[in-house]
Amino acid sequence: MHQYLKIISLTILLLTFYIHGFAQNGFSNSPDSVRFVTGDIDNFWKAFDHYKKDTSINTFGKEYIDIGSDGVKGFTPYRIRCRHKTAPL
Predict the structure, then answer these.
(1) Residue 64 in contact with residue 42, Cβ under 8 Å?
(2) What is the mean pLDDT of the chain?
(3) 88 is in which domain, residue-wise?
(4) Is residue 21 domain-resident?
(5) Against a cut of 0.90, is the pTM above it?
(6) How many domains does the chain have?
């Protein structure tokens, strides 16, 4: 039983460090310094409209991801493995 508790404790400790390593950081503690960035919304829809005109060209990389905010750039590596696969041809 003692060995079992050691394994569980070690697993919880390692998972805590693993999760903390991927946690978002860089947030401000001051509400007055927070920025609400909405430019990504406009960039997405512009890229989408261009994609609808010519679906053979993936416009999302150049017109959305590459010029995106820190939020888009922080999100992309962990959610979209390859931007060329975001819009199937």
Answers:
(1) no
(2) 78
(3) 39-89
(4) no
(5) no
(6) 1
Q: Sorting pLDDT into bands at 50, 70 and 90, what band is 29?
A: confident
60 in any annotated domain: yes
Q: How far apart are CA 28 and CA 34, in angstroms?
A: 7
Whole-number Å distance between alpha carbons of 66 and 4: 48
CB 63 within 8 A of CB 46: yes
Question: For tokens 């962990």, what's the residue?
Answer: 78
Between CA 1 and CA 9 the distance in angstroms is 12
Which one-letter amino acid corresponds to residue 48? Answer: F
87: closest CA among 2, 62, 29, 11?
62
**What single string gives the DSSP state of each residue in 38-67?**
-HHHHHHHHHHHHHHH-TTS--HIIIIITT
